[in-house]
TrEMBL record:
InterPro entries from the UniProt entry: ATPase_P-typ_cyto_dom_N, ATPase_P-typ_P_site, ATPase_P-typ_TM_dom_sf, ATPase_P-typ_transduc_dom_A_sf, ATPase_P-type_domA, Cation_Transport_ATPase_IB, HAD-like_sf, HAD_sf
TM annotation in the entry: 12-31, 37-56, 68-85, 237-259, 265-290, 573-592, 598-616
Source species: Faecalicatena fissicatena
Keyword Nucleotide-binding annotated: yes
Residue ranges of domain P-type ATPase A in the record: 119-218
Biological classification of the source: Bacteria, Bacillati, Bacillota, Clostridia, Lachnospirales
Taxonomic superkingdom: Bacteria
Record keywords, A-Z: ATP-binding, Cadmium, Cell membrane, Membrane, Metal-binding, Nucleotide-binding, Translocase, Transmembrane, Transmembrane helix
Protein name as it appears in the record: Cd(2+)-exporting ATPase
Amino acid sequence: MAKEIKIQAGTLAAGAALFIAAVIWSGRAMLENEVRFALFLAVYLVVAFHSFYSISSSLARKKLEKEHLLMVIATVGALAVGHYAEAVAAMLLFQIGCILEAVSVDRTKRTIEKFIDIRPAYATRKEEDGEVQVEPSQLELGDVIIIKPGERVPVDAVILNGNTSLDTKALTGEAMPDSVGPGSRIYSGSINMTGVVEAQVKKLYKDSTVSRIMELVEGAQQQKADSEGFVRKFTRIYTPVAVLAALLIMVCPPLFITGSGWETWIYRGMIVLIAACPTGLILSVPIAFLGGIASAARQGIVVKGGNYLEMLAKVDTFVFDKTGTLTEGTFTVTRVRPEGLTKEELLEITAHVESYSNHPIAQSLMSAYGGTYDPERVTDVEEMPGYGISASYNGSRVHIGNLRMMEEQGLAVEQVKTIGTVIYVAREDQYAGYIVIEDRIRDNARWTMKMLRERYNAVLVMLTGDSRAAGNAVAKELQLDYTYTELMPEDKLEQMEEFMQYQYEAERVACVGDGINDAPVLARADVGIAMGALGSDAAIEAADIVLLEDELPKVVDAVRIARETVRVVSQNINFALIMKFVVLLLAAAGYITMWESVFTDVGVMIISIINAAGVVKYSV
């Protein structure tokens, strides 16, 4: 529990003890009115200390804590008209509510940190004279670190020596350990389970995966959803109106109704002031969104703010990238058709040139070649997004890419119509043949599309730069509503703009991609969802929601959490508003006392917290 909450709880406990003692003493002893006033005033100052502190702090920030101010005005008024014990009891109940609010928010934030804040305490750096334990922030790029069983990976790194299993559950939500060895990329926050490994630092501590994710989560707690904005705007109007109503109740009846006593109506007006405190209403929304963020964190889903949860709940159109999102992104060469070359020569040329690319297609070509590489054979490499790659190989200019690449080089090549991705090759302005590569649809893609379509009545769209044949084959298998193929990166963005232009005001568009090539459309969509983006800077920057695990069903999980969160928010707002107006009417009519009014508000607060706690524990 935070230090401030402990201090507040200690002060309140002392005030409660003093209040009980004051009530017992004043009940047994025949005290003068002045003595009773002084006694309860002293107790009141202890009980109300937090409210006075909050008001002074907010004034220093040029803001105003309306809830605390209204409570102080009302209870001081009650003291002034002789309701000493009731004034202290009302303030005591109000402070109990504040403690409950603070504890609930603190526990929710700690729940988030429990699943996300896994930053290691130290790192073991390998030096010439041995091993040295240092702060992770002291590591530099290129340093060699040693990670022993049971230790957390301090920064993002690449394994140099050793084999082990890594527990990545805290990052991805996946319980199954990952087997890693030399050349494997490992991420900060993972736990080394079995063997000792040496790894080379690839990212500074401040740029490592866990630090970046924690920044997102901490920032998420500051992002306000539309519902929170509604409540704040509502209370700006509601609070002054309620205060004016309380003043009219205090003044008008004694002036215009014969026999009405000032003391009775001032006291009743003070009850209305307390009933007007919007504490329960204001609390009902943010605690639910914090619960949604915490629930998502349990599933390995990082949401940048409550506003994105609220927006995701309204999404009716999902736009998917194809390669690496709907498909596995692991390609296999299925056909090689050379022109004037042997199959081995065509594969050798493409593998050497593509070895300079990190694209999954390049990796499959290199795997199909299977021979040794001579990097000195390849020079003047130029990647052309949306077309392919060009380079000089053994002194000859080679162009490898799609049909547009061949057209760019002025070559009249007949389009190959087949399922899969077709890679065309030209050498020295001569067509050299083509290679067909196929990518397998993800096992869980069909289930994900079915759930989105049947459960949420979603429109499913695919945008891909792949060929029409390959794109349509995937779209048909997954029963997508719309498919757009052979798109350049700028074409994808233009298509996204078109979707958003024709949507209704209440509709939203989500884009799901790998977070690297699709960064522009992820950023432009109402909700950008980066899938399997662990360690991807582009994903973390561009997306609004980051799925740390490379699993499509997490999209469905995110939607379910978002809708559950919004449902709880709506319940809390409606319940708080109904109770608030009922209590105001009863207070104005004189049917409830001051402490009963506060007790009702605290009850609304507790019920809202309990309802929101269900979102925190929400299991998908």
